[in-house]
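ok trying again, last paste got cut off:
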Amino acid sequence: EESNGVIAMIDLLIKDLDKELTEAEVEEKEAQADYETMMEESKEKRATDSKALSQKESTKADTEGQLQTLKDEKRAAKKELMAVEKYLSSLHAECDWLVRYYDVRKEARAGEVDSLQKAKAVLSGADFSASAMLQRPAPKSFLARGD
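nice, full thing came through this time. structure:
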């Protein structure tokens, strides 16, 4: 009977080992299937991430190109603005000169008008000798037109 008990115990151990081996094989197959699923999902995610990265790099390159274009346009606009400001400054200086010397120019123009009137009169036969000048009335304003 003792040998039957030992044999039964060994049989029980063998059954337990077979059962544990079967369970381990099932768990291994499930783990392998989970691993393959995870690897497939990772592969798809890498492909998706790679496409997204490519699109983002392309968008970045386009944006950088637009930025450079806008910088060039800004630089050209600044140059044009500086040229316009320089021209405006020169016009301002010219206007300041005209305003500053207005009275001098006005007197010079009046003198020229008077000289032209005298020249016209001489050509018409007028006498501008010293005695004739003393008898003549004072000249009209420089703005008056002589006929």
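cool. Residues 2-100 form the longest helix (99 residues). The two ends are 165 Å apart (CA to CA).
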